[in-house]
């Protein structure tokens, strides 16, 4: 069933745009770039692995909307990796920037998603959600211990939050 779900995401306009922009940047994304796998011991539902593609944890995902959202989020990481000259994923600031962009541009922190997660703040929910989710991701990086995660995120926040490439504006 997840294989069927993985084939449907390619119809999503944001996915089409991201794949086209990556191809224009010299990083064509073939269908085998996306894989459904059973994830053991991973907390996330999907991840981008440099040189291997995007993996969706089939044992953690149940709905097409989740798959679409995850693919968009991870494609933004792949796009960042494609366009950056010297992106280092083990560098807290580099990872924070890509996580900020992915959270902001993918719709991860849309109001309805936040309600479903049990977060009921009406004003300012999106930046707060992005900060929370960026920190969760950074904490999994052994190079981001102590205050390094939060400091790195805050250091790059403005420039990365306002970087909407490959979109003209934040969706």
Report strand %: 5-15%
* Secondary-structure element series: HHEEEHHHHH
Number of helices: 7
Class based on secondary structure composition and strand pairing: mainly alpha
Structural shape: globular
Write out the strand line-up for the largest beta sheet, numbering strands in chain order: 1-3-2
The overall average pLDDT, rounded, is 86
Point out poorly predicted stretches.
none
Note the main sheet: 3 strands, mixed
The overall strand count is 3
Number of domains: 2
Radius of gyration: 15 Å
What is the percent of helical residues?
40-55%
Question: Span from first to last CA?
Answer: 29 Å
Describe this protein with a few key phrases.
171 residues, mainly alpha, 2 domains, 7 helices, 51% helix, 8% strand
Secondary structure topology:
Blueprint: H1 2-8, H2 13-24, E1 34-37, E2 46-49, E3 53-57, H3 64-83, H4 92-106, H5 111-116, H6 125-138, H7 148-161
Parallel strand pairs: 1-3
Antiparallel strand pairs: 2-3
Helix pairs in contact: 2-3, 3-4, 4-6, 4-7
């Amino acid at each position: 069933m997840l294989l069927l779900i993985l084939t449907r995401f390619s119809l999503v306009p944001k996915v089409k745009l991201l794949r086209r922009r990556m191809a224009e940047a010299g990083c064509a994304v073939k269908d085998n770039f996306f894989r459904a796998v059973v994830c053991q011991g991973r907390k996330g539902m999907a991840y981008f692995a440099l040189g291997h593609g995007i993996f969706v944890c089939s044992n953690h995902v149940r709905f097409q909307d989740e798959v679409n959202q995850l693919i968009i989020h991870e494609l933004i990481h792949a796009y960042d990796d494609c366009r950056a000259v010297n992106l280092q994923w083990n560098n807290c600031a580099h990872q924070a920037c890509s996580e900020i962009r992915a959270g902001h541009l993918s719709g991860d922190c849309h109001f309805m998603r936040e309600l479903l997660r049990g977060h009921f703040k009406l004003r300012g929910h999106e930046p707060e959600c992005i900060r929370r989710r960026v920190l969760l991701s950074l904490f999994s990086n052994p190079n981001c211990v102590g205050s390094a995660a939060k400091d790195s995120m805050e250091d790059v926040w403005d420039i990365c939050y306002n970087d909407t490439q490959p979109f003209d504006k934040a969706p």
